[in-house]
Amino acid sequence: MASTLTLEQEINPWEAQAARFDFAARKLNLDEGLWRVLRHPSREIIVHFPVQMDDGRIEVFTGFRVQHSQARGPGKGGIRYAPDVSLDEMRALASWMTWKCAVVNIPFGGAKGGVICDPKKMSAGELERMTRRYTAEIIDFIGPEKDVPAPDVNTNEQTMAWIMDTYSMHMRQAVTSVVTGKPLTIGGSRGRREATGRGISVVCDEALKHLNIQRDGCKVIIQGFGNVGSNAARLMQEKGYKVIGIAEYEGGLYNPEGIDACSLLEYRQRNGTVLGFRGAEAADPVELMTTECDILIPAATENVITSRNADRIKARIVCEGANGPTTAVADEILADKRIFIIPDILANAGGVTASYFEWVQDRQGYFWKEALVNDQLDSILAESFDDVVRYSEAHAVNNRIAAYMLAIDRVAFTIRQRGFYA
Ligand code: GLU
Predict the structure, then answer these.
(1) To which CATH superfamily is domain 42-184 assigned?
(2) Atom 8 in ligand 1: which residue has the minimum CA distance?
(3) Cα distance between residue 414 and residue 91, in whole Å
(4) C-beta separation of 379 from 371 below 8 A
(5) Extents of the domains making up the chain
(6) Nearest residue CA, atom 10 of ligand 1?
(7) Would you state the pLDDT for residue 3?
(8) Could you tell me the distance, in angstroms and rounded to a whole number, from the CA of residue 116 to the centre of ligand 1?
(9) What is the whole-number distance in angstroms between the Cα of residue 180 and the centre of ligand 1?
(10) pLDDT (tens digit, 9 = 90+) per residue, 211-269?
Protein backbone atom coordinates (compact mmCIF):
# COMPACT_ATOMS: atom_id res chain seq x y z
CA MET A 1 0.00 0.00 0.00
CA ALA A 2 2.56 2.48 1.23
CA SER A 3 4.94 2.45 -1.75
CA THR A 4 2.19 3.32 -4.26
CA LEU A 5 1.49 6.67 -2.61
CA THR A 6 2.68 9.93 -4.14
CA LEU A 7 4.48 12.33 -1.79
CA GLU A 8 1.36 14.51 -1.80
CA GLN A 9 -0.73 11.58 -0.57
CA GLU A 10 1.96 10.53 1.86
CA ILE A 11 1.93 13.92 3.58
CA ASN A 12 -1.84 14.29 3.70
CA PRO A 13 -2.45 14.03 7.47
CA TRP A 14 -5.91 12.55 6.94
CA GLU A 15 -4.40 9.71 4.88
CA ALA A 16 -1.73 9.27 7.57
CA GLN A 17 -4.37 8.95 10.27
CA ALA A 18 -6.62 6.68 8.20
CA ALA A 19 -3.74 4.32 7.29
CA ARG A 20 -2.87 3.73 10.95
CA PHE A 21 -6.53 3.56 12.00
CA ASP A 22 -7.37 0.94 9.36
CA PHE A 23 -4.33 -1.15 10.24
CA ALA A 24 -5.06 -1.04 13.98
CA ALA A 25 -8.80 -1.68 13.48
CA ARG A 26 -8.03 -4.74 11.35
CA LYS A 27 -5.65 -6.06 14.00
CA LEU A 28 -8.35 -5.54 16.62
CA ASN A 29 -10.96 -7.30 14.50
CA LEU A 30 -13.13 -4.25 15.01
CA ASP A 31 -16.63 -4.93 13.77
CA GLU A 32 -17.55 -3.23 10.54
CA GLY A 33 -20.20 -0.92 11.96
CA LEU A 34 -17.91 0.56 14.61
CA TRP A 35 -15.17 0.81 12.01
CA ARG A 36 -17.47 2.99 9.92
CA VAL A 37 -18.47 5.07 12.95
CA LEU A 38 -14.91 5.80 14.02
CA ARG A 39 -13.31 6.19 10.62
CA HIS A 40 -14.88 9.62 10.06
CA PRO A 41 -15.48 12.65 12.27
CA SER A 42 -19.04 12.98 13.55
CA ARG A 43 -19.35 16.71 12.86
CA GLU A 44 -17.50 19.15 10.62
CA ILE A 45 -18.25 22.84 10.94
CA ILE A 46 -16.99 25.29 8.31
CA VAL A 47 -17.53 29.02 8.79
CA HIS A 48 -16.71 31.98 6.55
CA PHE A 49 -16.82 35.18 8.53
CA PRO A 50 -15.90 38.86 8.16
CA VAL A 51 -13.28 40.72 10.16
CA GLN A 52 -12.49 44.40 9.94
CA MET A 53 -8.75 44.88 9.45
CA ASP A 54 -6.76 47.79 10.89
CA ASP A 55 -6.85 49.69 7.59
CA GLY A 56 -10.66 49.52 7.47
CA ARG A 57 -10.84 46.72 4.87
CA ILE A 58 -13.24 43.83 5.45
CA GLU A 59 -11.50 40.47 5.12
CA VAL A 60 -13.36 37.14 5.05
CA PHE A 61 -11.71 34.26 6.92
CA THR A 62 -12.49 30.55 6.78
CA GLY A 63 -12.54 28.63 10.05
CA PHE A 64 -13.21 25.04 11.02
CA ARG A 65 -14.18 23.04 14.07
CA VAL A 66 -14.20 19.30 13.52
CA GLN A 67 -15.53 16.97 16.20
CA HIS A 68 -14.40 13.44 15.63
CA SER A 69 -15.99 11.71 18.61
CA GLN A 70 -17.81 12.67 21.78
CA ALA A 71 -18.39 9.11 22.93
CA ARG A 72 -16.16 9.28 26.02
CA GLY A 73 -16.94 12.89 26.93
CA PRO A 74 -16.98 16.42 25.50
CA GLY A 75 -14.83 17.06 22.45
CA LYS A 76 -11.35 18.29 23.30
CA GLY A 77 -8.60 19.77 21.19
CA GLY A 78 -6.74 22.86 20.18
CA ILE A 79 -7.36 25.68 17.73
CA ARG A 80 -4.60 26.57 15.29
CA TYR A 81 -4.04 29.64 13.15
CA ALA A 82 -1.98 29.06 10.00
CA PRO A 83 -2.11 29.71 6.24
CA ASP A 84 -2.16 25.98 5.43
CA VAL A 85 -5.01 24.94 7.74
CA SER A 86 -7.34 22.63 5.80
CA LEU A 87 -10.37 20.46 6.42
CA ASP A 88 -8.35 17.27 5.96
CA GLU A 89 -5.78 18.46 8.49
CA MET A 90 -8.56 19.30 10.97
CA ARG A 91 -10.13 15.87 10.46
CA ALA A 92 -6.84 14.13 11.16
CA LEU A 93 -6.01 16.26 14.17
CA ALA A 94 -9.52 15.80 15.61
CA SER A 95 -9.23 12.01 15.32
CA TRP A 96 -5.78 12.11 16.88
CA MET A 97 -7.31 13.95 19.84
CA THR A 98 -9.89 11.15 20.27
CA TRP A 99 -7.11 8.57 20.31
CA LYS A 100 -4.83 10.70 22.51
CA CYS A 101 -7.49 11.25 25.19
CA ALA A 102 -8.28 7.53 25.16
CA VAL A 103 -4.59 6.54 25.44
CA VAL A 104 -4.21 8.59 28.63
CA ASN A 105 -7.70 7.55 29.69
CA ILE A 106 -9.20 10.98 30.34
CA PRO A 107 -12.94 11.57 29.84
CA PHE A 108 -12.92 13.48 26.56
CA GLY A 109 -13.59 12.85 22.92
CA GLY A 110 -11.58 14.48 20.15
CA ALA A 111 -11.97 17.74 18.25
CA LYS A 112 -9.82 20.34 16.53
CA GLY A 113 -10.32 23.79 15.11
CA GLY A 114 -8.46 26.29 13.04
CA VAL A 115 -8.63 29.41 10.95
CA ILE A 116 -6.84 29.92 7.64
CA CYS A 117 -4.79 33.06 8.25
CA ASP A 118 -1.23 34.27 8.60
CA PRO A 119 -0.99 35.38 12.23
CA LYS A 120 2.56 36.69 11.69
CA LYS A 121 1.13 39.35 9.39
CA MET A 122 -1.76 40.35 11.66
CA SER A 123 -1.87 42.90 14.48
CA ALA A 124 -3.04 41.96 17.99
CA GLY A 125 -6.28 43.85 17.35
CA GLU A 126 -6.96 41.93 14.13
CA LEU A 127 -6.22 38.62 15.85
CA GLU A 128 -8.56 39.51 18.70
CA ARG A 129 -11.42 40.48 16.37
CA MET A 130 -10.88 37.33 14.29
CA THR A 131 -10.84 35.13 17.41
CA ARG A 132 -14.00 36.69 18.84
CA ARG A 133 -15.96 36.39 15.60
CA TYR A 134 -14.77 32.81 15.01
CA THR A 135 -15.91 31.97 18.56
CA ALA A 136 -19.30 33.55 17.93
CA GLU A 137 -19.66 31.53 14.70
CA ILE A 138 -19.08 28.17 16.43
CA ILE A 139 -20.66 29.10 19.77
CA ASP A 140 -23.55 26.62 19.54
CA PHE A 141 -21.13 23.74 19.25
CA ILE A 142 -18.63 24.50 22.03
CA GLY A 143 -19.09 24.56 25.79
CA PRO A 144 -17.82 22.90 28.97
CA GLU A 145 -20.01 19.83 28.37
CA LYS A 146 -19.88 19.91 24.58
CA ASP A 147 -16.45 20.70 23.22
CA VAL A 148 -13.56 22.43 24.99
CA PRO A 149 -10.93 24.15 22.81
CA ALA A 150 -7.31 24.82 23.83
CA PRO A 151 -4.18 26.38 22.31
CA ASP A 152 -2.36 24.80 19.39
CA VAL A 153 -0.02 26.09 16.67
CA ASN A 154 0.09 29.95 16.77
CA THR A 155 -2.53 30.32 19.51
CA ASN A 156 -1.82 30.90 23.19
CA GLU A 157 -3.18 31.92 26.60
CA GLN A 158 -4.27 35.29 25.23
CA THR A 159 -6.28 33.62 22.45
CA MET A 160 -7.99 31.42 25.06
CA ALA A 161 -8.79 34.49 27.20
CA TRP A 162 -10.56 36.11 24.21
CA ILE A 163 -12.55 32.94 23.53
CA MET A 164 -13.51 32.60 27.20
CA ASP A 165 -14.58 36.25 27.31
CA THR A 166 -16.62 36.07 24.09
CA TYR A 167 -18.36 32.88 25.19
CA SER A 168 -19.03 34.34 28.66
CA MET A 169 -20.53 37.52 27.19
CA HIS A 170 -22.97 35.44 25.15
CA MET A 171 -23.88 33.26 28.16
CA ARG A 172 -24.26 36.31 30.42
CA GLN A 173 -22.00 34.72 33.02
CA ALA A 174 -18.34 33.82 33.44
CA VAL A 175 -17.72 30.38 31.98
CA THR A 176 -14.08 29.56 32.58
CA SER A 177 -14.31 25.86 31.70
CA VAL A 178 -15.21 26.52 28.04
CA VAL A 179 -11.50 26.53 27.11
CA THR A 180 -8.25 25.33 28.68
CA GLY A 181 -4.76 26.76 28.43
CA LYS A 182 -6.01 30.07 29.88
CA PRO A 183 -4.05 32.62 31.90
CA LEU A 184 -3.88 31.73 35.62
CA THR A 185 -6.02 34.72 36.61
CA ILE A 186 -9.08 33.48 34.74
CA GLY A 187 -9.09 29.82 35.62
CA GLY A 188 -5.88 28.57 34.06
CA SER A 189 -4.00 25.72 35.73
CA ARG A 190 -0.55 25.87 37.20
CA GLY A 191 1.75 23.66 35.15
CA ARG A 192 -0.39 23.74 31.97
CA ARG A 193 2.08 25.81 29.94
CA GLU A 194 4.94 23.40 30.57
CA ALA A 195 2.78 20.26 30.52
CA THR A 196 3.43 19.01 26.98
CA GLY A 197 7.21 19.40 27.41
CA ARG A 198 6.98 17.78 30.81
CA GLY A 199 5.05 14.82 29.42
CA ILE A 200 7.74 14.38 26.77
CA SER A 201 10.42 14.22 29.45
CA VAL A 202 8.42 11.61 31.36
CA VAL A 203 7.88 9.28 28.41
CA CYS A 204 11.56 9.65 27.45
CA ASP A 205 12.53 8.64 31.01
CA GLU A 206 10.30 5.59 30.70
CA ALA A 207 11.70 4.68 27.28
CA LEU A 208 15.26 4.85 28.59
CA LYS A 209 14.37 2.57 31.51
CA HIS A 210 12.66 0.20 29.11
CA LEU A 211 15.66 0.11 26.76
CA ASN A 212 18.25 0.13 29.52
CA ILE A 213 19.90 3.36 28.42
CA GLN A 214 21.45 5.69 30.95
CA ARG A 215 19.84 9.13 31.27
CA ASP A 216 22.87 11.16 32.26
CA GLY A 217 24.42 12.62 29.14
CA CYS A 218 21.81 11.06 26.87
CA LYS A 219 22.01 13.10 23.62
CA VAL A 220 18.86 14.84 22.43
CA ILE A 221 18.04 16.81 19.28
CA ILE A 222 14.86 18.86 19.27
CA GLN A 223 13.17 20.17 16.15
CA GLY A 224 11.06 23.22 17.04
CA PHE A 225 11.68 25.61 19.92
CA GLY A 226 8.13 26.79 20.54
CA ASN A 227 6.17 26.05 23.71
CA VAL A 228 6.60 22.27 23.39
CA GLY A 229 10.24 22.11 22.26
CA SER A 230 11.58 24.79 24.59
CA ASN A 231 9.92 23.35 27.69
CA ALA A 232 11.02 19.83 26.79
CA ALA A 233 14.59 21.12 26.35
CA ARG A 234 14.59 22.94 29.69
CA LEU A 235 13.03 20.13 31.71
CA MET A 236 15.12 17.39 30.11
CA GLN A 237 18.30 19.34 30.69
CA GLU A 238 17.36 19.64 34.39
CA LYS A 239 17.03 15.86 34.49
CA GLY A 240 20.53 15.29 33.08
CA TYR A 241 19.86 14.90 29.35
CA LYS A 242 22.21 16.72 27.01
CA VAL A 243 20.42 18.76 24.34
CA ILE A 244 22.99 18.83 21.52
CA GLY A 245 20.85 20.22 18.71
CA ILE A 246 17.95 22.61 18.22
CA ALA A 247 16.40 22.93 14.77
CA GLU A 248 14.17 25.94 14.14
CA TYR A 249 12.52 26.93 10.84
CA GLU A 250 14.94 29.89 10.56
CA GLY A 251 18.10 27.86 11.25
CA GLY A 252 19.67 25.39 13.65
CA LEU A 253 22.13 25.17 16.53
CA TYR A 254 24.53 22.37 17.39
CA ASN A 255 26.84 21.81 20.34
CA PRO A 256 28.02 18.28 21.18
CA GLU A 257 28.72 19.51 24.75
CA GLY A 258 25.10 20.57 25.22
CA ILE A 259 23.09 23.74 24.60
CA ASP A 260 21.87 25.57 27.67
CA ALA A 261 18.11 25.80 27.11
CA CYS A 262 17.52 28.59 29.65
CA SER A 263 20.19 30.87 28.16
CA LEU A 264 18.83 30.15 24.69
CA LEU A 265 15.31 31.06 25.79
CA GLU A 266 16.58 34.33 27.26
CA TYR A 267 18.57 35.01 24.10
CA ARG A 268 15.51 34.39 21.92
CA GLN A 269 13.34 36.61 24.11
CA ARG A 270 15.85 39.45 23.75
CA ASN A 271 16.63 39.01 20.06
CA GLY A 272 13.52 37.43 18.61
CA THR A 273 15.58 34.62 17.03
CA VAL A 274 17.78 31.69 18.04
CA LEU A 275 20.29 32.64 15.34
CA GLY A 276 23.58 34.05 16.54
CA PHE A 277 23.39 32.36 19.95
CA ARG A 278 26.91 32.08 21.31
CA GLY A 279 26.45 28.80 23.19
CA ALA A 280 26.37 26.67 20.02
CA GLU A 281 27.48 26.70 16.41
CA ALA A 282 25.10 27.35 13.53
CA ALA A 283 23.79 24.20 11.87
CA ASP A 284 21.50 23.30 9.00
CA PRO A 285 18.09 22.46 10.51
CA VAL A 286 17.42 19.84 7.83
CA GLU A 287 20.70 18.08 8.58
CA LEU A 288 20.03 18.14 12.31
CA MET A 289 17.11 15.78 11.70
CA THR A 290 19.55 13.14 10.52
CA THR A 291 22.42 13.88 12.92
CA GLU A 292 23.42 11.12 15.31
CA CYS A 293 21.78 11.30 18.76
CA ASP A 294 19.98 9.10 21.28
CA ILE A 295 16.61 10.86 21.12
CA LEU A 296 15.16 12.90 18.28
CA ILE A 297 12.15 15.02 19.26
CA PRO A 298 10.19 16.53 16.37
CA ALA A 299 8.19 19.20 18.21
CA ALA A 300 6.94 21.53 15.50
CA THR A 301 4.59 20.46 12.72
CA GLU A 302 3.42 17.51 10.66
CA ASN A 303 5.43 15.59 8.06
CA VAL A 304 9.03 16.23 9.03
CA ILE A 305 9.95 12.53 8.89
CA THR A 306 8.94 11.19 5.49
CA SER A 307 10.11 8.64 2.92
CA ARG A 308 12.66 11.31 1.89
CA ASN A 309 14.70 11.30 5.13
CA ALA A 310 13.54 8.37 7.30
CA ASP A 311 16.31 6.04 6.16
CA ARG A 312 18.94 8.57 7.27
CA ILE A 313 17.60 9.12 10.81
CA LYS A 314 20.29 8.06 13.28
CA ALA A 315 18.43 8.34 16.59
CA ARG A 316 17.68 5.34 18.77
CA ILE A 317 14.41 6.85 19.95
CA VAL A 318 12.02 9.20 18.14
CA CYS A 319 9.69 10.96 20.58
CA GLU A 320 6.92 12.82 18.76
CA GLY A 321 6.25 16.15 20.46
CA ALA A 322 4.27 17.41 17.46
CA ASN A 323 1.11 15.88 16.05
CA GLY A 324 1.72 13.74 12.98
CA PRO A 325 5.44 14.45 12.43
CA THR A 326 6.02 11.01 10.86
CA THR A 327 4.21 9.75 7.76
CA ALA A 328 2.87 6.19 7.58
CA VAL A 329 5.47 5.33 4.91
CA ALA A 330 8.27 6.61 7.14
CA ASP A 331 6.90 4.48 10.00
CA GLU A 332 7.78 1.36 8.06
CA ILE A 333 11.29 2.58 7.33
CA LEU A 334 11.89 3.49 10.99
CA ALA A 335 10.52 0.10 12.06
CA ASP A 336 13.01 -1.66 9.76
CA LYS A 337 15.77 0.35 11.39
CA ARG A 338 14.48 -0.75 14.82
CA ILE A 339 14.09 2.82 16.01
CA PHE A 340 11.93 2.99 19.13
CA ILE A 341 9.00 5.36 18.46
CA ILE A 342 7.08 7.11 21.19
CA PRO A 343 4.02 8.02 19.09
CA ASP A 344 2.45 11.50 19.18
CA ILE A 345 -0.82 10.34 20.73
CA LEU A 346 1.19 9.24 23.76
CA ALA A 347 4.28 11.48 23.66
CA ASN A 348 2.52 14.85 23.50
CA ALA A 349 -0.50 13.90 25.63
CA GLY A 350 0.86 15.84 28.62
CA GLY A 351 -0.79 19.01 27.28
CA VAL A 352 -4.29 17.64 27.08
CA THR A 353 -3.84 15.81 30.38
CA ALA A 354 -3.09 19.10 32.14
CA SER A 355 -6.02 20.59 30.22
CA TYR A 356 -8.18 17.93 31.83
CA PHE A 357 -6.90 19.04 35.26
CA GLU A 358 -7.67 22.65 34.33
CA TRP A 359 -11.23 21.76 33.31
CA VAL A 360 -11.71 19.83 36.58
CA GLN A 361 -10.36 22.76 38.65
CA ASP A 362 -12.59 25.28 36.82
CA ARG A 363 -15.69 23.18 37.42
CA GLN A 364 -14.79 22.72 41.08
CA GLY A 365 -13.66 26.29 41.58
CA TYR A 366 -10.74 24.91 43.54
CA PHE A 367 -7.19 25.32 42.26
CA TRP A 368 -4.35 22.88 42.75
CA LYS A 369 -0.77 23.52 43.73
CA GLU A 370 1.70 23.03 40.89
CA ALA A 371 3.25 20.01 42.59
CA LEU A 372 -0.11 18.21 42.52
CA VAL A 373 -0.58 18.94 38.80
CA ASN A 374 2.95 17.70 38.06
CA ASP A 375 2.61 14.55 40.18
CA GLN A 376 -0.68 13.57 38.60
CA LEU A 377 0.69 14.31 35.15
CA ASP A 378 3.82 12.24 35.72
CA SER A 379 1.91 9.23 36.92
CA ILE A 380 -0.69 9.33 34.10
CA LEU A 381 2.05 9.59 31.46
CA ALA A 382 4.20 6.86 32.99
CA GLU A 383 1.19 4.52 33.30
CA SER A 384 0.10 5.23 29.73
CA PHE A 385 3.61 4.52 28.44
CA ASP A 386 3.50 1.22 30.26
CA ASP A 387 0.03 0.41 28.85
CA VAL A 388 1.20 1.08 25.29
CA VAL A 389 4.42 -0.91 25.58
CA ARG A 390 2.65 -3.86 27.20
CA TYR A 391 -0.02 -3.74 24.47
CA SER A 392 2.67 -3.70 21.80
CA GLU A 393 4.38 -6.74 23.31
CA ALA A 394 1.14 -8.64 23.81
CA HIS A 395 -0.01 -8.08 20.22
CA ALA A 396 3.40 -8.03 18.51
CA VAL A 397 2.85 -4.62 16.92
CA ASN A 398 4.90 -1.42 17.03
CA ASN A 399 4.22 1.27 19.63
CA ARG A 400 2.18 3.46 17.32
CA ILE A 401 -0.18 0.70 16.28
CA ALA A 402 -0.35 -0.43 19.92
CA ALA A 403 -1.39 3.09 20.99
CA TYR A 404 -4.06 3.21 18.27
CA MET A 405 -5.33 -0.27 19.20
CA LEU A 406 -5.53 0.59 22.88
CA ALA A 407 -7.35 3.83 22.09
CA ILE A 408 -9.75 2.35 19.53
CA ASP A 409 -10.54 -0.48 21.91
CA ARG A 410 -11.42 1.96 24.71
CA VAL A 411 -13.57 4.18 22.49
CA ALA A 412 -15.31 1.22 20.83
CA PHE A 413 -16.07 -0.30 24.23
CA THR A 414 -17.77 2.93 25.35
CA ILE A 415 -19.79 3.20 22.15
CA ARG A 416 -21.03 -0.37 22.55
CA GLN A 417 -21.97 0.37 26.16
CA ARG A 418 -23.86 3.52 25.23
CA GLY A 419 -25.57 1.83 22.28
CA PHE A 420 -26.94 3.60 19.23
CA TYR A 421 -29.65 6.22 19.44
CA ALA A 422 -32.05 5.90 16.54
N1 GLU B 1 -3.27 21.29 21.12
C2 GLU B 1 -2.83 20.35 22.10
C3 GLU B 1 -2.80 18.95 21.51
O4 GLU B 1 -2.71 18.77 20.33
C5 GLU B 1 -3.61 20.44 23.38
C6 GLU B 1 -5.05 20.10 23.29
C7 GLU B 1 -5.83 20.36 24.56
O8 GLU B 1 -5.23 20.67 25.58
O9 GLU B 1 -7.05 20.25 24.48
O10 GLU B 1 -2.77 17.98 22.22
Answers:
(1) Leucine Dehydrogenase, chain A, domain 1 (3.40.50.10860)
(2) 352
(3) 21
(4) no
(5) 42-184, 195-347
(6) 352
(7) 57
(8) 18
(9) 9
(10) 999 999 999 999 999 999 999 999 999 999 999 999 999 999 999 999 999 999 999 99
